[in-house]
Structures are given as C-alpha cells and as structure tokens.
Amino acid sequence: MNSAPELGFIALLRWAWRQLTSMRTALILLMLLGVAAIPGSLFPQRNQNPQKVDSYFTSDPTLAKWMDRLHLFNVYASPWFSAIYLLLFISLIGCVLPRTITHLKAIGKKPPLTPRNLDRMEGYRVIATDPATAIESARFWLKSHHYRIRVEGDSISAEKGYSRETGNLLFHLSLILILVGVALGSLLGMKGEAILNVGDRFINTPTSYDNISYGKFQGQGSLPPFALTVKNFVATYDAVTGQPSNYILTTEISDPIGAAAKKVVIKVNKPWTIGSTKVYLQANGYSPFVTIKDKSGHVTFKGAVIFLPQDGNLSSLGAIKVPDMVPQIGFIASFIPTATSSAARGIFSSYPEVLDPRLVLSAWKGNLGLDSGTPQSVYSLNTAQMSKIGLKALTLGSTYDFGYGTIRFDGWKSWVNLQIVDDPGKMYALFGALFAILGLLISLFTRQRRIWVKVGEGVEIAGLAKNGIPGLEAELMALTRALEEGEK
Amino acid sequence: MSSSNLAYFSNDAIYACLAIFTIAFLAHAFEVSWSVKNTESSDKTEFDFSRTNRAGRLGTSMMILGTGILVIADVTRGLSAHRVPWGNMYEFSITGALMLAAAYLFAFAKYKVRWLGLPVSISVLLTLGTAITVLYRPSAPLVPALKSPWLAIHVLAAIISGGVFLVANLVAATFLVMERYELKGERPIWARKIPSLDALDQLSYRLVAFVFPLWTFAVIAGAIWAESAWGKYWSWDPKETWAFITWVAYAAYLHARVTVGWRGRRAAWLCIFAGSTFLFNYIWVNIWGTGLHTYSGL
Ligand code: HEM
After folding, report:
1. CA A37 to CA B245: how far, in whole Å?
2. Segments forming the whole domain that contains residue A327
3. Is the per-residue pLDDT at A4 higher than 60?
4. CB B171 within 8 A of CB B207
5. Mutation site, B220, B288, B296, interface A, largest A CB count within 10 A
6. Using a 6 Å cutoff on CB, does residue B254 contact ligand 1?
7. The model's pTM
8. Does the structure's ipTM exceed the value 0.90?
9. How many structural domains is chain A composed of?
10. Which helix H or strand E contains A451, and what residues bound it?
11. Does residue A99 sit in the same domain as residue A114?
C-alpha cells in the first residue's frame, strides 16, 4: 500500500533525471547560459565599474533598486546565473559519463553484424566481379583504408571513424574539467589589491591590503608569507602621442619573510609567481610629497599622499587631511605632472611624465568628520562641515601660507597598484580548454561510416554515413572500382 | 625605409587595394549580370556564360592581386610599428579584410565558388574603406598591456575565424535568397551559375565546422593572455561575454546540424544569427562598449 506513492516518487525522480540529462536539455541550458550572459554586458557590473552602478542609483533609485533585486548589477554571481551553470554541469555529467562507459566497453569489439537486407542501405549496388575473390580483395581494400573489419561467412562488416566518438567524449569531458576549474577558482581562490609608494614595504597579510576578497572556502590564514619592497618604478612614454610604452617595476622580495631578499622585476604581462599565487602590476600614479607646519613651525604632517590619475596625462586628484591642527585642515588637491595652461582649461597636464609639476591646492578648515564613524575615502575630502580658506598652485619646492600654517610641496613619488591573485583552479581550466580543442578537432574531422560487402547471388555492397556526412558515395565508388579491377 | 616611410607606404598600398578590389567587384558584377542575353524569338531570357567568362577570370585575378597587395600593406604596417599589425581597430580591420579575402581564395581554390567573389569583394571594400577613413590611427607602438605574444596569437586566430565566419554568413545568406527564388519558381538568370541549394548548405556548414576549433582556440588564447595581464583569465567584460555568446551560438549551430539534423533554411538563419553575434562584438563592443578591452583610442 505504502510503496505505490513511493514508487511513483522514484519514478518521478528518474523521469526528472532523464529529462535533465538529455542532450536536448543540456543544449537548452547552454543556450540559456549564453542568453543570461547578455545583461551583464549591457548593464554596468559592480565588480567592474562600481561608479557607473552608483550613477544608476542616483539617477533613478526605484528602477535601480529593482534591477539590483534581479541581480542585474552582479549577473555572473547571481543565483539565477549560477543555477543555469550548475544545472548544465549536472546535465553534462549525466549525459556524458554513461556514454563514456559505453564507449570504453566498445573498445576492441568488432563492428556489428552485416544486416540481412543490404538493399535498404545507402549506396546499395550489385557489382560485376568474381564472388570467389571478392571477400578477399574487399578485405584487403578495407584494411588499407583503416576500417575495422568483421568477416562472418560470406559477408564483411566494416566500420571506420570510431575515434569520432572518442573525440566527442574528450571534448565534452573537457568541458566538465573547465567547469571544475572555474568552480575551484571561485571557491578556493583569493584576490586582493594593494597600493604602494616607491620605497614601501608590503607584508603579505590581510591587513596590508586595500581590499581583499576570498573564495567561499578559503581561510584567511592561507596567504603565502612573503615581504615585498618597492625599489623602483619606471614608466616610459611615446614622446609624440604620450602613450605609455613600458612599465618596469623593480622589487626586492623575501620569501618567506626573513629570507634573503632577491631582486624581482615585474612588468605588465610578467607577474611574479609564488605557488598558485601571482603578483601583477596593475596600475600606477603619483603621490605628491608635502610638509605641513602649524603657525609655531611645528610639523603636523609630512609624507607622500596617494593621488588617483584622472586622464591619460596623469592629472591626479587626491585629498590631504591634517586632523592634528586646530581647526582641522584639509586640502582638495590635484597633481599636474607637466603643467600647461590655456584660457579655456586653466592649468592642465600635457604629458604623463613629471617634467614641470604643479600641486594645485584648495584649502579647507573646520571638521574633517573623521570620527563620525562612517568610513571615508582617503582620496576625497568631506567638506560638509568645512569652509574654504584659499586656493593656490605650487611649483616644486615652494610654500603656501594658508593662514593657520604652511604647506610645502617637497616632491613626488610614483605609486604602483599590485594585484595579488590566487586561483588554484586555473590549471584545470587550462588543461580542460586544451583537451577540448583536441577533442573537437578529432570529432569534427573524423568521418564515421560503415561499409558492408556480401556475397550471395552477386556481390552486393552498401554503406552508412553517420550524421549524413558526405563522402560515402565516393568511398563506395572507390571500393567498387577496386573490386572490379581485382577481377581483371 | 624608415618607420614613417613604411607607414606611408602601407597606406598607399591600402588605397591601391581599394582600387583593385573595386575592379574585382565590377568584374564580378559584370560577370553575373552580363551573361543575360535578350533574344526576341523567345519570351524567356537566355544566357550565355561564354562571353562573361573572361570577366569572371579578370575578377579572380584582381582578387588574387588585391589580396597580395593587402598582404604587403599589412606587413609593412606591422614593420613600421615594430610589432604585429593588429593593435587597434584600424589594424584589426585591414588584417580582417585580408583574412576574409584569403578565406575566399581558399574556398575558391577548393570548391570553385567564383560567384562568392561578388559579396566578398564588396565586403572587403567596405571594411577597407571604413578602416582608412573612419578608423585610421597613425602607426605607434603598443601600450604595455598589449605587449604579449599571446596578443599576436589570440588576435590572429580571432581575425581568421572572423573572416571565415563572414564568408559562411555570405554563403548562408545566398542560400536564403536562392531558396526564395526557387520556391517562387526558378532562379533569375544571373543566379544560375550559383551552386545548388544543397551545395550552399553544405559549404556554409563546412566553413563553420572548419573554423569552430580555431575560434575556440582564439577564446582560450585570449583567456591565457588575460591571465598574464590582469590576473584573471575570465572577467566577463563585454568583449569576453560576447565571444562566449558567439561560441555558444556556433555550438548550437553545429549541434542543430549534426545531432538534430537541421538543414536548409533553419540552419542558414541560425548560421547568420551566430555570425551576427560576432559582428556585434566587433562593432558595438569595440566602439561603444566599456571594459578592459577598450584599446588605445579604438
Ligand atoms: C558547451 C558547448 C558544447 C559544444 C561546443 C558541443 C559541441 C559538440 C560537437 C562539435 C559535437 C560533434 C557532433 C558530431 O559531429 O558528432 C557534439 C556532439 C555531442 N554533444 Fe555536444 N557540445 C556542447 C555541449 C554539450 C552538452 C552540454 C551536451 C550534453 C549534456 C552535449 C552532448 C553531445 C552529444 C551527446 C553529442 C554526440 C551527438 C552525436 O554523436 O550524435 N554537448 N557536441
């Protein structure tokens, strides 16, 4: 009594599994994945372009909120995208594994028996040749054309292109390997960024990063222990176009921390590798160096402040904050590496290298708002509780007296942005990709066909081309010719 | 020759190509249209290919000559910048046009598809024309992120695939047009030299099957390059996303043909759809898209 609904349930599960693992479903899922990828290319993605996402929120908050609920700003990590991806993964496994087993079992097996009625097959013909020698010469011809042969009485069943299925399966199994690699990377990987001035030392611990994110199963303690000191950074530019032509970062790395330092050069396409972790040179810019004194001549701030580049000629914006003065002082500043001025644009940078630098300052006094609890960007000044007290463009080495003290433009340093990435899955993805191509080549360029020769009243031959691939007719013609000539 | 002389030489060669492909286009147009012979005795138009055969041969020789000069233009462009000639949209376009022309010559040598010369020559003309007028950039070295051997490999594979995809699309479009004629009655005279529907159908499939592995490789080489430049082999930036979509679309096409048995009109539309995703990527994403793939001012 009880077993009936249970059986029904199991049957239902079976049915669902068969549906999920049918090739048709897999293909539909694959198409869906393609379609689902589209919105991510049309709307800004939070991890790629957060500013643009913010602009959606300011221009139409209600719409943006709805879009956010549908994960349109984070498509590739959204539940619906992951769902398609996972279903495809399961479907592929369920579809391909049984086929692989069948295929492996078929290795070394002979081709299936010659069917009784050849006249229903493609390219059926009866040829004029001596039945006595036909089997032997057909066998010879088929062998030399790489057919697997089964001679049974007075008929031959021959098959070629077995490797097509091998290629097919290799390709589809490789797809699974790629998916595994991608999954490993996102579950066990990590990615972080750190901005360092030339001369800075970086210790690879979570607190040294400006931002860091871990895969779901990656613990914090797993960072490889090394220390890196930025020794020198050189950027060269094309003198005519101002486009960068080369970046060379020279570092000294102690691996592990405390070991003898070795010199390592990192370039844009040449990261430094430690285990499955790599250190990339990602971006660069300038940090102006300033000294600020209060009225009594006491130094209240001295150091290099990281500014963010705004254009190809590296005009850079930043904020200098001095909380230890009364009142608190802040500067909104731009650093111009090669100053040029025009009536229309004021002072601007005409070349990315530092040839004639300016530090343009707007000075503010009041409350910096640093202890309000909400975190603040180090690159901008919150002027809500401040008032402006002056504006000044400084040349290298000059000093500006803003009334409550002085600021001196001492010099500048370069900074580099290092991206540190650990992706333990990428080797799987790479090998998956390479095997996929191999499988694809085998499968697309192998022709699978069968040929039968039967000696009865006459000599009959016929064939079958899998998937309607052309060329069977020509092959049958060649065999016919061979048999007829064998006659003479 | 100095670098800038080489660059000027390359530009001149491109202009020469424009002229030569124009002649090729006219010759092919002449070939297909001039075979029509109006006779008063019959109400049906007759045609005579003997008198257009020479025009056809002229078209082919111009295609060969034009492709040869395009090779020179492309190589000198690369030499002038001391690198491979595919660092910005202008260079992608001229190299892409070269690949399209070369794919045609290959198909011509193998399958005698001279009639394809008409759509191919006009496509090459349009590509080169927009390249030299709208997309032109002076020859310059690469920004650091583009300096990688994988760039050369990835972009070359992508451009070749693109050229062949375009030819496959032209064939599929021809199929659709011819099919319409045949459904309505018979083909007009200018179209009688074009191969049978069946042959067209097969040809577009073979072209796609032939380059699909190469396109797969192009995507993978791109991922390898991205890994060495940005630290992530796949970031779903618009360019990558659309490359993936193109790949999925062609995979769908191959499956539809091989495992579901689609032929003819449905397959042709699917082929054209897949090719359009490639064009969309090339045109829309390169020019209006944002992302890591935005190159030095195109
Ligand atoms: C992800 C992209 C995919 C691509 C590019 C792809 C490509 C191919 C190719 C090129 C073939 C060769 C067909 C032939 O010539 O025999 C093939 C066959 C096949 N594919 Fe896929 N495939 C993909 C996904 C899938 C998925 C998800 C499944 C199933 C779960 C699947 C199942 C099959 C099967 C069963 C065959 C053999 C069909 C036959 O031999 O009749 N494929 N596939």
Report:
1. 8
2. 287-415
3. no
4. yes
5. B220
6. yes
7. 0.73
8. no
9. 4
10. strand A449-455
11. no
